[in-house]
């Protein structure tokens, strides 16, 4: 399956979660989580050490792991973790029947990709070469295109621009 097709399947899920979501605007886990909400897509933050994650000025209740998701079999998951932690997250996702995963650049190595793409592991895996970013498919770079392909692109709320905004700063348009 092409990565484009995998991205369409990924965004066809009714629910979404972000493993590695963070309240720290300098971290990609924050930027990815904020991107979902800027696109008017509700996503559950998954963070083992935080009860809540704040993004775009709103606090969201976090869950400590994928097992705590209310309907994992209906949830596509973006994962932003170091490669060493990724395999554990993927094993949990597979056991829970998570249908699709998006592995952010820098979060995987060859062994992780091989595991994720094993026959029957997931319905769709978005990762690797082919995206518009220089390190492969990234929600921040390729997400809008994938949403459009899945027929889910609404009116984004300044998407990436807002997800990258630092606290206390204002954009010229504000």
From TrEMBL:
**Which InterPro entries is this protein grouped with?**
CoA-bd (IPR003781)
Which PANTHER family does the record match to this protein? COA-BINDING DOMAIN-CONTAINING PROTEIN, CYTOPLASMIC PROTEIN-RELATED
Q: Which Pfam families match?
A: CoA_binding_2 (PF13380)
- Which parts of the sequence are annotated with region: Disordered? 151-174
Name the chain's protein.
CoA-binding domain-containing protein
**What spans are recorded as compositionally biased (Basic and acidic residues)?**
154-164
Q: Outline the extent of the CoA-binding domain.
A: 10-107
Native species of this protein?
A: Verticillium longisporum (Verticillium dahliae var. longisporum)
């Amino acid at each position: 399956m092409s990565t484009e097709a995998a991205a369409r399947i990924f965004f066809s899920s009714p629910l979404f979660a972000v493993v590695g979501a963070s309240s720290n605007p300098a971290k990609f886990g924050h930027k990815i989580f904020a991107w979902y909400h800027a696109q008017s897509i509700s996503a559950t933050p998954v963070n083992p050490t935080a009860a809540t994650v704040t993004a775009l000025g709103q606090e969201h209740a976090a869950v400590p792991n994928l097992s705590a998701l209310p309907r994992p079999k209906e949830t596509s998951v973006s994962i932003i973790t170091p490669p060493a932690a990724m395999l554990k997250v993927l094993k949990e996702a597979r056991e829970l029947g998570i249908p699709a995963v998006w592995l952010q650049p820098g979060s995987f190595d060859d062994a992780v990709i091989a595991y994720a793409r094993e026959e029957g592991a997931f319905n769709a895996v978005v990762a690797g070469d082919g995206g518009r970013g220089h390190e492969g498919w990234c929600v921040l770079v390729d997400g809008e295109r994938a949403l459009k392909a899945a027929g889910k692109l609404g009116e984004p709320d300044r998407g990436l621009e807002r997800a990258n905004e630092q606290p206390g700063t204002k954009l010229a348009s504000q």
